[in-house]
Amino acid sequence: MEEVSGYIGNFTVTIRKKPRYVDPELCNACDECAAVCPVVVPDEFQMGFSSRKAIYIPFPQAVPCSYILNMDDCLGINPIACGKCAEVCEKEAIDYDDQGEVVTRDVGAIIVATGLDVYDPTEMDEYGYTRFENVITSMEFERLICAGGPTDGHFWTARYEFSALRPSMPVGIHVSSS
Ligand code: SF4
N or C end: fewer C-beta atoms under 10 angstroms in the chain? Predict the structure, then answer.
C-alpha cells in the first residue's frame, strides 16, 4: 500500500501490485509451464518438505488460481536464458516484461494484516530442533497434518524424509519462543 487518504467509510487507497510475469486473466493453470521448468527449489509454503518450480501456484486454493514466476529462482529473462515456460504456454499468458502496476481503489474500511516472522528454532536448541529429526515446529506440524500438504495429511515423523515411523505419542511445547 503506497498511500491512503480519506476517512472512515470513504478511503482512497493506492496499491502497488508487484509483477507476477503471468497474466492471471489468461492463465488457465494447466501446469504445462511448471512441467518444463528446469528449476527445482524447496517449496517455502510447504516448509521445505516438498519442492516447486520457478513458475508455480504459490499455495493450494490461491486466488487468483494462476501461476506466478519467481524471478529470484528463474534462470533469467534479461537476456532470456531459458524461456521454456513461454514456449509451451498456449494462452501466451507469460510476460517477461511485466513491470507490475499501481492501482487506486475506493474502499470503506481497511484491515491491517501485517503478517509475522516465524521464530527461528535453531536459536533455542535446548529442545533439540537441530539434533533430532523428529523435533518439528508448529508450522511444520501444520503442513504435515494438512490434507493439502506434502504428505496428504499423514503425520510422518522424520523431518525432510518421510519414514514409515508414525509417532505414537506426540508432545507439544507451547509458546517456546516467548
Ligand atoms: S524461463 Fe524461468 S520460469 Fe520459465 S521455464 Fe525457464 S527457468 Fe522456469
Answer: C
Total domains, the chain: 2
47 lines ligand 1 (CB under 6 A): no
Range of the domain at 82: 19-99
**Boundary-marking domain end, from 71, 99, 127:** 99
Residues 147 and 84 in one domain: no
In tens, the pLDDT along 127-164 reads: 888 988 788 888 988 998 898 888 888 776 555 455 55
**C-beta of 55 in contact with ligand 1 (< 6 A):** yes
Task: Give the count of beta carbons closer than 10 Å to the beta carbon of residue 110.
Answer: 12
CA distance 92 to 99: 17
